[in-house]
Design a protein that fits this description.
Blueprint lengths: L2 H19 L10 E6 L12 E3 L7 E4 L5 E4 L2 E11 L2 E6 L1 E3 L5 E3 L1 E8 L6 E9 L9 E8 L6 E9 L5 E3 L10 E3 L11 E7 L3 E6 L2 E7 L21 E9 L21 E12 L4 E3 L2
Parallel strand pairs: 3-6
Antiparallel strand pairs: 1-19, 2-7, 4-5, 5-6, 5-19, 7-18, 8-20, 9-15, 9-19, 10-11, 10-18, 11-12, 12-13, 12-14, 15-16, 16-17
Length: 290
Amino acid sequence: MTKIQGLVLVCLTVLGALGATRPPVVRPDGRQLVWSDEFDGSALDGSKWKFHATMNSTDCVYTNDSRTARVEDGRLHLMVVPSGDPAKPQMLPRGVSTRDRMAFRYGYLEMRAKIPFRHGAWPSFWMTVQPGRGKASWVSEVDIFEVFSSSNAVVANLHKWAGKRGHFMLPGGEGSLKRAHTFKDCSKLNDEFHVYGFEWTPKEMSFFVDGEKFTTFPIDEANDYCPDKGLGMAGHHDFHNIHVNNEIFTPGHGWCPEAYRITSDDALPIDYYVDWIRLYQKDGEETIRP
């Protein structure tokens, strides 16, 4: 082998290694990659994310810094850790959000993550309407998944927040596990990464784990889930932001099923790792970016 041949081989090897880490540009359904974060920097990318108070508990310490949210080894690492304060014993991050940074309408969104499956934990990957961009009279919330203090299941939910008219949720969500993906083998689940996907079209919202669709719901006007309130389905067609939370259930949380509450016997830290988040779209599916 000549020196030139050797140099070419080295270059091809390096390019091949780099290529192996790059996200696919086009999905089998023809959608193209339009936005992503591979979390390969040294800190959370402020041009894409910011800390955002989406949940709150009076007996927790919330932070907006690297004590509970950091980028390391090519991953976003969210942690619940001891605070040292007996009155507020757990410290955790505010949710991270693309709010005011990026919003989208329709497409395929996916995240590769290792999330905590255990008592007391409430990790989530979800979306809400971008402030000022909603055309509906109510605010949509789409929970791509939540883990309700579970050892083996993720649950998808749809919500309508309608101000004085109240809060309405698609029946059978949250802790009921009626719209859940249950892992058959959960013995090593806390050590495994899985891909959690969400496909959003003008007709329906579908939810996936590792490419398997586990539930879907039509969002056309003919399939309203609270028609007696006259709210319609318009909110689920507005532009949405993305949120990621490593929340926990505590007595001081606004909504806290007692059986899910974290106790002094539940070990800390609670770790949530995000390897990447990617959004794919085709013509007619829209994104707002700065």
